[in-house]
Amino acid sequence: MMRYFFCILLTLLLTNCSDNQNTPIDNSILLAKVGSKYITIQDFIRRAEYTIRPKYCRRGNYIHKKIILNSLIAEKMLSQEIEKNNSEKLNDINFNLFLKGRKEQAMRQLHYNNYFYEEVNLKDEEINQYLKLSRRSVQLDYINLPGLDMVKKVQYLISENITLDSIYQALWEGNTPQKNIKWLDRESDQILDVMFKNDLKVGQIIGPLETGDSSFLMMQITGWIDQPPITESQKELNRNDVIEKLKEKNANKTHSDWVKSLMSNKSITFNKDIFKIYSKYAGDYYLKKEEDKKEAINDVIWDQVENIDQKEIIDLDKENILDLESTLFSYNGNDWSIKKLHEELRSHPLVFRKKKMGKSQFPSQLRLAIADFIRNKEITSECYELGIDKNWVVESNVEMWRDAFLSQNYMGAGNQSEEEKLNLYNPIVDSLQSIYSSEIKINIDAFENIELSSTDMMVTQSGVPYPIMVPSFPILTDDSKLNYGEEMEKINR
Question: Which residues are within 8 A (CB) of 332 and not within 5 positions of it... i.e. 6 or more apart?
Answer without folding.
Answer: 266, 267, 268
